[in-house]
Specification:
binds beta-D-glucopyranose; alpha/beta; single chain; Nucleotidyltransferase, domain 5; about 230 residues
């Protein structure tokens, strides 16, 4: 009998600004470089799925994990704060699986980032700082999915995403954005009393203050690496 070949996973991270992919081995280690395209505009499901298919062309993989920047339940995308409204109620898992001819699993992008970052012990929280603001919460490595803290009130009548998302960073600049982030960390610590907070997403490179000892930056690549966890069951 021939040996079973190890499964390769195409990890996809759909973002408001970029769509990224990478091939992972069964342990979640990268087997390819990370590739990125600009998120097509208008960012409809059609346009983004076309982009994913182009990125995937010529690559060998057995299954697909997708991080989506909104609430995902049973493979269906339920919100779309930073993407086209055609994503509301879109059967992403089913449609992409038909198009690629492989099984697909989908989760919220911050949840996947967290699955790639957490240690699995105690209360761990993840905040992602990109186009939008994402959040994930874990107890002993078990995820509470779709936390959506980004759209909760933070300060001055605005949400975390309105104060700390990409548009806010561009509007108020790095200095004030960093001050806001410091305030947000203080507030989240008092609410959640996490053992560890991970900060992810592209804008973590703008952080210019010393983080508290229980807060650390998760490398950007964890947004793709965490995709392997969707197949652990
Ligand atoms: C969405 C979240 C997402 C975050 C980061 C927010 O606008 O509501 O689901 O995790 O952006 O992409």
């Amino acid at each position: 009998m021939g040996e079973l070949l190890p499964l390769q996973t195409l990890a996809v991270d759909i973002g408001g600004s970029g769509v990224k992919i990478m091939i992972l081995d069964e342990q979640g280690n990268p087997l390819s470089e990370r590739e990125r395209i600009e998120t097509p505009q208008p960012s409809t499901p059609d346009a983004i799925l076309r982009g994913i298919k182009e990125l995937a062309a010529g690559k060998s993989f057995d299954r697909v994990s997708v991080g989506y920047p909104g609430v995902v339940r049973q493979g269906i995308t339920e919100t779309a704060a930073n993407l086209h409204s055609d994503w509301l109620g879109f059967a992403l898992r089913e449609v992409l699986s038909q198009q690629l001819g492989k099984p697909v699993r989908v989760a919220n992008d911050a949840d996947i980032q967290g699955l790639g970052a957490v240690s699995g012990s105690g209360v761990e929280m993840v905040i992602t700082l990109g186009t939008g603001v994402g959040a994930a919460l874990f107890l002993h490595g078990r995820l509470v999915p779709n936390l959506e803290l980004g759209h909760h009130p933070f300060r001055k009548g605005e949400t975390y995403e309105q104060q700390l998302g990409r548009a806010a960073l561009d509007a108020v600049g790095k200095k004030r954005w960093n001050q806001r982030l410091g305030k947000a960390i203080g507030l989240l610590e008092r609410i959640y009393n996490y053992d560890r907070l991970y900060l992810g997403g592209g804008n973590t490179k703008k952080i210019d203050f010393v983080l508290p000892p229980n807060v650390q930056v998760a490398p950007n690549i964890t947004g793709l690496l965490g995709g392997i966890a969707l197949w652990r069951d």
